[in-house]
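Hello forum,

I keep getting stuck at the same step: I have a sequence, I want structure tokens, and every attempt I make locally crashes halfway through. Rather than fight my setup again tonight, could one of you with a working pipeline run this one for me? It's a single chain of 446 residues.
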Amino acid sequence: MISEVVMPQMGADMKEGTVLRWLKAEGDQVERGEAIAEIETDKANIEIEAFDPGVFRKVLVAEGETVEIGTIIAVIAAPGDDISAYESGERKISATPATAAAQSARPSQPGAAPATAEARAPSPPAGVAPPARGQAATPITRTDSRYRASPVARRLAEELGLDLGALQGSGPDGRIVRRDVEDAAKRGAAASKTQPVITAATAPPAPSIPSATMPAPGTVVDMPLSRMRRTIASRMSQSKREAPHYYLTVDADMTEATRMRAQINDALGESGRVSINDLLILACTRTLQRHPNFNSWWVDEHLQVHGRVNIGIAIALDDGLIAPAVLDCQAKPLSQIAREARDLAERSRSGGALTPEEYTAGTFTITNLGAFGVDSLIGIINPPQTAILGVGRVQDRPAVQDGQVVVRSMMTIALAADHRATDGAEGARFLQTLKEILEKPALMFV
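Reply #2:
Ran it on my machine without issues. Output:
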């Protein structure tokens, strides 16, 4: 049996992807579900897996090459199968329209979308033909210090101390991609950056905010959007256009939760460190188990309620925001959630590969800007999910307790939910449960 490996569609707005590296060599035996390649999409690096066992017979797209979704990039087959049509170039695009979407995630698991589901971004992993390839945007001359580059290329250049302005991009529209940075590092052709290195001793306590060059007075600079920013713009516009949002906010007393967190961190040390966001992931998991309609996707004008709790965490990158998911939170202790959330963030920021499931299987999202000193945040739902929790900082505020005004550690949380899936009363009950669990954190463990 011949199995075509295609460039998968990781979201409805994805039109092309880049093969970063092959994890298998021609002639290797491949098992179903085994990672075979790492690809670069608009927003992340993704490992794709074999959907059928066999021999890894032929690589059709070289490392560093960018191709449209649906393009056949490799062939897995039995040793005696005839693959001459692929070797001669007669077969380039998958004959099955849904193949690109179907290969965007692992085989169906409990709570996953059926094969007929409509693809959205992040989308159920099947059933939609790739969108038509749009006309490439006309390159615009850049007059500032920013350069058209993929997120992984930016991070790699920063790690290697290379100046993006000295590089020539080989990607679409002259975009600088990973191979351009790696080639420059080998040649030693790029000039070193002159910015001072920020050490742990001098780093600010909150995440740094990227700076941009102000145009000269009387001038206007036309800033073209990166592929990631275009994808974000499309998805957020789709969400606000199609999903009737409603919003609810509440203040949670985090005094006991922060005290418990400090005790856990003192006992476990750096290796077992737990953040406020980790507590939120576990608290939301327990809340979603009691209010499952919020752990859902809106697909084909109906609600799909998931049995797995996959919590997406919003992670800020140079070019925009992604929300990969910590998978199966309902079955994991706090310590494991903390490790996996930390690993997810590190891989996302360093250009490490995410799995298709981490990228597309989220059932609920948490977006937290507390580290930036933000008091409250109301998010936009990440389709096809039906709810998102916005989180502000934990800060000391006056509060009334037992008739007395006392100082407590307070945090504002805001639920944005899809009115097609739930209503305001359900949202209020969801927040009541979440607030109770956060204020009595022992409830997370029962």
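The radius of gyration is 23 Å. If your local run keeps crashing, start a new thread with the error log.
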